[in-house]
Amino acid sequence: MNQIIAETKASVFKTVDGLKPTLIDLSKRIHRNPEVKFEEYKASQWISQAAEQAGFRVEKPIGGLDTAFRASYPGSREGPTIAFLAEYDALPKLGHGCGHNLIGPASLGAVLGLQTAMDDLPGSIQLIGTPGEEGGGGKVILAKAGVFDDVDVALMFHPSGKTILWKHALARRKLFIEFFGKAAHAAAVPEKGISALDATIQTFQNINALREHVVDSSRIHGIITDGGDAPNIVPDYSASLFYVRARDDDYCDELLEKVRNCARGAAVATGAGVEMEMQGAYKSLQTNMPLAQAFKSNLEALGWTFEEVDPAEGIGSTDLGDVSHLVPSIHPYLSIGPKDLVGHSTEFVEASASEKGFEAMIAAAKAMAATAVDILLKPDLYDAIQADFEAFES
């Protein structure tokens, strides 16, 4: 069996190597044409069309999202369904400052490489286009629509400054807060007005007072989206948007309620009315360790080494968190630049179209595909993956 696995992986790698110019060209095109959340019409079409032309059965759109798709290819007999997740959205104004132009083509490369071996493998493979990771929660929407119901394992990679097997991703709640006051001339009759802006500013001050009394790994950060129209008019409307994050989902909800109370207190203090709207939530990420270790072995076999880092270092949030509560999942990081490379920066945009970035993309495609081969041909590994997932869920 070990010989069969080795030969299968060698065949898959040869196919991926042959696709390297095509995958790099695709990544460059996506990079040159950045599309923000749920507007990724070009990237979605380019990736799904490449899968369809290769013989995959493509469903599009799916889950109620115009730029989401599923490309499926069967194996020779019954077995697990392995999904490779493709992200391809960009950041507003900045472009591909998170390297999603590398993620989509890497997953495409993985499934196209595996396709050559599926006639001899059990199970099936899927390439799922998951738009809107940057603030839209595309995977959350797709999960609620049942897109992952027939998936047994989910894999993807993410570009970074360091090569890291896993780290925490925080649960996140997105809260929109509006205050309603009363307009008046700010110089002639300010006493006639109620400042909605003052209520917003007071909310920020209340939250800053709260920070001393929250768990260290928690995060609360916000912006004022509307602060009034002119200095000589008491603002009768003001709005802000907050992200509330925590490692634990229950604590994140508890912290969210405290933030709501900060806004309620500001409303009482200023006399303004307040309305609050939840605009989305991400669950914390649950990394499946047997699956992660299998990926680690395959990437190391390609000559890559992982760095040992604190899993709480530099953590953000991802909509893969919701998927990881439904399906065994991994989200490893591969280096595309210097160790101090900062995400959501112009430097990251440049690294996402660099030779090192393309090298990471190809390595990720190979390692993910090789991990799928292990899952499909090693029943003990698949059982361990499912046991780890069930232990988490219980």
Instruction: Indicate the low-confidence ranges by residue numbers.
Output: none
Major beta sheet, strand line-up: 1-2-4-3-5-11
What string, H for helix and E for strand, traces the elements in order? Answer: HHEEEHEHEEEHEEHEHHEEHHH
End-to-end C-alpha gap? 33 Å
Largest sheet data: 6 strands, mixed
Which range best describes the helical content: under 10%, 10-25%, 25-40%, 40-55%, 55-70% or over 70%?
A: 40-55%
Please supply descriptive tags for the structure shown above.
alpha/beta; six-stranded mixed β-sheet; four-stranded antiparallel β-sheet; 11 helices; 12 strands; 42% helix; 19% strand
In words, what does this structure look like?
- The chain has 394 residues and is an alpha/beta fold.
- Helix content is 42%, strand content 19%.
- The protein is built from eleven helices and twelve strands.
- The chain has helices at residues 2-32, 41-53, 100-115, 138-144, 196-210, 249-270, 289-301, 320-324, 346-351, 355-377, 379-393, and strands spanning 57-59, 69-74, 77-86, 122-129, 153-155, 158-160, 171-180, 219-226, 237-246, 273-282, 329-330, 333-335.
- The chain has a six-stranded mixed β-sheet. Strands 8-9-7-10 form a four-stranded antiparallel β-sheet.
- Helix 1 (2-32) packs antiparallel against helix 3 and helix 5 crosses helix 6 (249-270).
- The relative contact order is 0.18.
